[in-house]
Amino acid sequence: MGVRPPSDDMDDEPDVIEFGIAALDARLEELGVTFPATADELVAEYGDVRVPVDAAGTEITLETALEQTTRREFETERELLDVLHPVFEERRQGSSRGYLAQLRALLPF
Questions:
Q1: How many domains are there within the chain?
Q2: Does residue 5 sit within a domain?
Q3: Among 95, 92, 93, 71, CA closest to 81
Q4: Is residue 49 a part of any domain in this protein?
């Protein structure tokens, strides 16, 4: 996923803030991760890689995301992304509920 930040009319084309699976996909390509790979190999090499799960910048490490799945082997990057997608979505939805709850706590009614 990705969202465009507010335009400041300084650039011709706005930057895109990537988060979730789109951000993970970009990081994996940037790091040159190769497949097939096991969860243990990914954690050993890239476990501390932090990936934003929402536009607010809430992050999750690859290790934490992999710990929340039962799959231990991935033949392709697409397979890894498909398995981790629900983890990222759950974390994103959880963080948005957290912000809403915080906002409601601030209101007097």
A1: 1
A2: no
A3: 71
A4: yes
Residue 51, strand partner residues = 60
pTM of the predicted model, to two decimals? Answer: 0.73
Residue 107 lies in a domain: no
For residue 27, what are the domain limits?
Answer: 12-87
- Rounded Cα distance, 84 and 47, in Å: 14
Tens of pLDDT along 21-64?
999 999 999 999 999 999 999 999 999 999 999 888 889 999 99
Q: What tokens does 109 get?
A: 């009614």
Give the residue from 33, 87, 40, 80 showing the smallest Cα distance to 60: 87
Residue 65 lies in a domain: yes
- The answer to whether 50 and 59 are in contact (CB under 8 A) is yes
More reliable by pLDDT, 79 or 97? 79
